[in-house]
Amino acid sequence: MNTTHHPDEATLMEYAAGTLDEAFAVTVSCHLEICPDCRKSVRAAEAMGGAMLCEQVGAPVAEGSFGRLLEKISAASGEGGNTAPAVMEQVQPQSPGSVLPAALGSYIGRNVDEIRWKRIGPGVWQHPIRLSDGAKSSLRLLRIAPGRSVPEHGHGGQEITLILSGAYRDEIGYFGPGDVADLDEDIEHQPRVVSDEDCICLAATEKPTRFKSLAGRLLQPFVGI
User: Sheet of 168-169: strands edge to edge?
Assistant: First the structure.
């Protein structure tokens, strides 16, 4: 799987340092499962952070100290106690649209066919994902039918969307399986599905979406986006 769009370098640095909130950490984890380039970037950030700590305290840093959020995710699925995050290993991509990333396993399972979707508009469904009580961000799966689009909108804060299957195009470009849209509050766009199959995305949001149309704003309290 070849990816064109990746998380920002700053996002990967925060991930390596364990400072991303849960929804964003899970989404980046899912991307790392299929992107060797970003796995290398995270390893480099961990090494740099470890070296900086060594200089500050004059003592060695335990290997994997910057992967605590990944360990938390693994622990939730019964894999706790490992010092090396499983997502950093070489992962073979599964068939698109049938198996969800391993990082989602403890949250909703891994079979797309078992997801209970809620319709929020013509050709658009969502599945909110429950996070830890202390999480400040939101995480959900979105499923959009071919030819359908999400109303034009901006973001109240950071939003990271990972394409799991299908594809969409917006003002930024084309996003296919494995691609990540790492957006901030300055970006406004209207994704339209251009694939022959449903586009399934994992979306982490910091604050509610800002819809431009009146219809979008009226529906927002009911759909929870």
Answer: 174-175, 168-169, 192-193
Interatomic CA distance for residues 149 and 131, integer angstroms? 27
Going by pLDDT thresholds of 50, 70 and 90, the confidence category of residue 155 is: low
Element of type H or E holding 121: strand 118-121
Q: What is the pTM of this model?
A: 0.73
Read out DSSP for 161-199?
Answer: EEEEES-EE-SS-EE-TT-EEEE-TT--B--EE-SSS-E
C-beta of residue 212 within 8 angstroms of C-beta of residue 153:
yes
Q: Of 94, 96, 148, 90, nearest to 119 (Cα)?
A: 148
Please say whether the beta carbons of 76 and 86 come within 8 A.
Answer: no
pLDDT of amino acid 21: 95
Residue 32 in tokens: 């790392």
- Residue with structure tokens 């003002």? 171
Q: Which amino acid is at 5?
A: H
**Can you tell me the distance from the alpha carbon of 129 to that of 171, in angstroms, rounded to the nearest whole number?**
27
Q: What is the mean pLDDT of residues 120-128?
A: 90
- Domains annotated on the chain, with CATH: 9-88 (1.10.10), 105-223 (2.60.120.10)
